[in-house]
Each structure stands twice: as structure tokens, then as C-alpha cells.
Amino acid sequence: MLLNFLQQPTSTLIKKYTVADWQILVNQARHHNLLGRVFYLLEKNQLLSYTPEPIIWHFESAFKVSQRQQINTYFEIEEINKILNKHHVVPIYLKGAAYCIRKSSCSFGRIFSDIDVLVSKEQLRLTETNFFTAGWLKTQIDDYDEKYYRIWMHEIPPLQHFKRSTVVDLHHNILPLTNRYVPDMSKFTTHSVENSWFGSATTLSDTDLFIHSAVHLFTESEFDNGLRDLSDLSMLLDEFSNNNTDFILTLIDRANTLGLLFFIDLALRYIEKLLNNENIDRKKINEKFKILNYKHNKIKSTVLDYCFIHVFTPIQPPMIVKSNNKTQRLLASFILFCRSHLMKMPLKILVPHLIKKTIRQIQDLFKQS
């Protein structure tokens, strides 16, 4: 139900909805954190008049929450810019904050939990110190996890403001340093946006923003927001393709330059398979891949199709979980969980890390008992 709506939100479709259909759509959208987006699409496509009033409330309330969050995000961006700009640090905003700054269509109705900020590794210590002096404190984690973040990860432990409870994830790369795909962040290009509220703020450029969002999604180990993030990518593709008819070809070239073409292949593949995005011309894409000598591994593609199609397909807990084949979904999630950790770091680092984490968890259980 939710996939059909995201693919083609039209009056022809929703006129057929029964009360039970609307209830399924509400439950699925709530579970996948897409209530606000459904309201945005209903309003954008002039479909509110076809929506039962008791149903609109569920979508509209989520949309209003996202509007309030956008205002709060603007305030936090203004504060972060004040803190860092005076020390000649230009923060690059990622993901949800970047969508808000750009007023991208995927930002309307979207909820996110933290503000992702990217700075160069050379500026990381200075940036962290300035956050501390402005009231952002380290979240409570043990010494081992602290060391794990500092040595292996692409970000430091989350920072939370002592008064406003705002959470900032401070990055110095978009992938863990042990990931075989980790890019050179100095090669990324940026885009500046002027706003009457926060002045100027910086995001990644169109291609690089899309690439980062794809990399983030397809290296995840959990997919609670997977369909939302795939929908983000589809809406970004629409937006950028409207501005540049050759955007996809430009995107493929750019991803190839950064060594991240694999993730763009996955993004375009599942946007096409699950969301039927009309901007995707498979013939042109395959020709471009051929020019770049990019080849698919059929066995790997088959396994990934099984996994990603299952985790992106909506469920409506608890009523229709069985009809979505819960066992297959759990298997797909487990395979992707293992895949994510194997991509994150080599076995010689991963195995000792997992052993240490397991021992610590057992010790904590004994302490609690």
C-alpha cells in the first residue's frame, strides 16, 4: 500500500481506498517514519480533498512536528555557524540538516534525530573543543567505545547540548577509516545556501550530497528508516534531474571518480525497482557502466536483491507481518547486518572487537544480576 502510494500518489489511486486501506497506509507510514511525507505528497498533488478527515489528522500532525523541527534546526545551524566560523571552520551539513538547508522536497515532513556536521580531520580537535565550550557535552559511553570511535570511525562520539538536548554527530569522513571504500574527503565539493535565518550554510554539492546519502543507506546495518531514506534519494533524483537533464550520467561519472560507483549502482537499482522513478533510463545507465568498464557480479546482485527488496518493502505491524514473510525479512536483515560489519572493517579488527564487546555485555549482565 505504502509503496504504491510513493510510486504514484494520484487521485485515481486513492479514490479506490477503503477505510481499511487508509488504515494500512497510516500504519505502514508510521512504522517507516513516513507519515509527514505522505501528508506532503497528498498536499502537493492536491489529494487532501480525497482523504477522509479522521485520516488526515495522522499525517498532518506528523507534518507539523517536522515543520517545528525545521525551525529548531535553523536555530541550531545559526548557533553552530557562530561557534565555528569565528575560528575559520566552515561546517558542512549532511543528510537531514542539509535537506532542510536546501529546502529539498524530501525535507518536508521528514523527521531526523541529530544534526550531522562534517569538518576536515585537521580541524576536528578545534571543532570539538569549540562545541564543548558552547555547551555540547560527550554522551555517556565507556572507555573502550570512546577509543573505538577515535581510532577506527569516521566520526567522534555524539555530542549533546546540556540545555537544549540537541545531538550533533561530528564527522571527518563519510565512511569508517577501515572501510575499503573510504574516500578522500578533500575531493568532495560543496554548495553554499543563503538564508535569512542563519545567513550562509554549506552542504555537499548536488552529486556529492546524493552520493553521501546513498553510501550512508547502503552501508547501514539496520533498516528501520530504510524505505524513508530510499524515498529521500528518489526525491533528490527528481529535484536534481529537473535542474540538469544529464544529472544521472554526471552522478555516475562523479561516483566513479570518488571510487563510490558501487553505491550509486545500488541506489539507482532500488529506486527503479521499488519506486519506479521515471528519471531512470536504464539503457543510458547500462551504456555508461559499459564505458566505465563497471560490471555486475550476478551472484552478488541476486543476494543483494533478495536482501534489500525484503528490508525496503513496507510492513504493517502487527497485522500483516506474516503475509510479508517475516522469516525471509529477518534473514535478509541478518545478512545485511553481517555485510555492514564486514564492510566496516577487516576481520582481523572486527573479530577482536566483537569478542571484546560480547565479553563486556556478559560482564554487565552479571553486574546487573
What does this structure look like?
The longest helix has 33 residues, at 53-85. β6 (190-195) and β7 (199-204) form a beta hairpin. A seven-stranded mixed sheet has the order 3-4-5-2-1-7-6. The protein is of the alpha/beta class. It has a single domain, classed as 2-Layer Sandwich (Beta Polymerase, domain 2), CATH 3.30.460.40. Helix content is 59%, strand content 8%. The chain has helices spanning 2-7, 11-14, 19-31, 35-44, 53-85, 95-102, 124-133, 143-152, 206-218, 226-243, 247-258, 261-275, 282-291, 298-312, 326-344, 347-368; strands at 92-94, 115-118, 136-138, 159-161, 167-171, 190-195, 199-204.
> What count of structural domains?
1
CATH topology: Beta Polymerase, domain 2
Q: Mind telling me which CATH architecture this is?
A: 2-Layer Sandwich
> How do the helices and strands follow one another from N- to C-terminus?
HHHHHEHEHEHEEEEHHHHHHHH
- Counting helices, strands and paired strands, the structural category is alpha/beta
Query: Main sheet, how many strands, which sense, barrel?
Result: 7 strands, mixed
CATH hierarchy class name: Alpha Beta
Helix content: 55-70%
**Unreliable stretches, pLDDT < 50, 5 or more residues?**
none
Strand composition percent: 5-15%
Measured distance between first and last alpha carbons: 45 Å
Average pLDDT reading: 91
The coarse silhouette is: globular
How many β strands by DSSP?
Answer: 7
Cα-atom radius of gyration: 21 Å
Query: What strand line-up does the widest sheet have?
Result: 3-4-5-2-1-7-6
Number of separate helices: 16
